[in-house]
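User: tokens in, sequence out, please.
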């Protein structure tokens, strides 16, 4: 069997609880790949992590390889092929008597986590490691991590696949079609309320979703705010941030990066901008992406951006620039 080393931070958290079994079940990396898991947690939580580890062992998956639990990020990411950076604080919690309302309010609390982690990944993970940031605010945390890693052969992603899945589900329900009929869903920009889940370039059975739905009022005043605010709606209802759907989206992202994208389709994740679509170079920006047969990931070019889309892309770019400004002390 082939072997792969996968490091996951926040191993004792709620997303990890849904994520970890699916990483070692054969579903994510294939039936014939043994997955060596490195679970990284803060020292206070290592004991609790033991419970999750017992359960992983008790699943009895034949794809489970070695298992390490550690609070040492260097040990955790050593020779990692994939690093899933989930560990960080979710919004909704109360700090100094104030509720953390927006993901960007987490920058000060979570941003610092990604400096040491980024630097360890740059030095100790494999030269071709792929890194997915789930912890919020995901785009700017990824910017910090990638900057500190300073290793251009590794590839950093921030997760927007959950937004893409949410958007597809809403479009499919509205159009009365199966979710698998919805393709080409691009989430432009930040994983925040300024994201733009593009209904004009998304396709329903090959035709523009906006055209099929033919209801501009619904698109602008129902669909967009619903997708943009879905994370908050889940927190309000559940009293905790999305976990099963977030884990599912992380797995979707890993599979999308590791396997060629179907012709005519795309997947959504945020990566370092190369200037495409006028976005300043280096910002971690949500784009429609394709994985090529040789394994390279590219930004799909020449997508038609209408005036409405351009205004949304401009505002999400502005937000990411201001987040970058807010963390400039954490960038090298
Ligand atoms: P959680 O509080 O249940 O778990 C987080 C875990 O991270 C905890 O066990 C904590 O001990 C650990 N942790 C904290 N600092 C760490 C560090 N420095 N190193 C290693 N581990 C550390 O939270 P959760 O519900 O699992 O969510 C985790 C993060 O994912 C949050 O920031 C949340 O906002 C984010 N999230 C992102 C998306 C997305 O679409 N990008 C979706 C859902 C949640
Ligand atoms: C989500 O979109 O569900 C997560 O980013 C959690 C949150 O804070 O909304």
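Assistant: Sequence out:
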């Amino acid at each position: 069997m082939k072997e792969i080393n996968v490091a996951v931070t926040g191993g004792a958290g709620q997303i990890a609880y849904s994520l970890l079994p699916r990483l070692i079940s054969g579903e994510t990396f294939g039936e014939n790949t043994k997955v060596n898991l490195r679970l990284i947690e803060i020292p206070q939580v290592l004991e609790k992590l033991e419970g999750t580890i017992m359960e992983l062992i008790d699943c009895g998956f034949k794809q489970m390889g070695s298992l390490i639990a550690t609070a040492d990020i260097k040990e955790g990411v050593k020779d990692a092929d994939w690093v899933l950076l989930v560990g960080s604080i979710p919004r909704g919690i109360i700090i100094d008597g104030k509720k953390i309302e927006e993901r960007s309010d987490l920058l000060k609390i979570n941003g610092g986590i990604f400096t040491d982690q980024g630097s360890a990944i740059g030095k100790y993970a494999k030269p071709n490691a792929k890194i997915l940031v789930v912890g919020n605010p995901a785009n700017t945390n990824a910017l910090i991590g990638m900057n500190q890693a300073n290793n251009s052969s590794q590839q950093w992603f921030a997760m927007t696949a959950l937004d893409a899945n949410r958007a597809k589900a809403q479009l499919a329900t509205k159009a009365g079609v199966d979710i698998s009929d919805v393709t080409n869903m691009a989430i432009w920009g930040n994983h925040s309320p300024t994201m733009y889940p593009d209904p004009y370039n998304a396709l329903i059975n090959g035709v523009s979703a906006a055209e099929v739905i033919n209801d501009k009022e619904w698109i602008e005043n129902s669909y967009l705010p619903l997708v943009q605010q879905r994370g908050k709606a889940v927190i309000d209802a559940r009293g905790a941030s999305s976990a099963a759907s977030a884990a599912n989206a992380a797995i979707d992202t890993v599979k999308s990066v590791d396997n060629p994208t179907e012709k005519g389709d795309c997947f959504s994740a945020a990566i370092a901008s190369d200037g495409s679509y006028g976005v300043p170079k280096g910002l971690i920006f949500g784009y429609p992406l394709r994985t090529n047969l040789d394994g390279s990931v590219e930004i799909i070019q020449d997508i038609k951006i209408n005036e409405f889309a351009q205004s949304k892309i401009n505002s999400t770019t502005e937000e990411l620039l201001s987040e970058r400004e807010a963390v400039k002390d954490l960038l090298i």
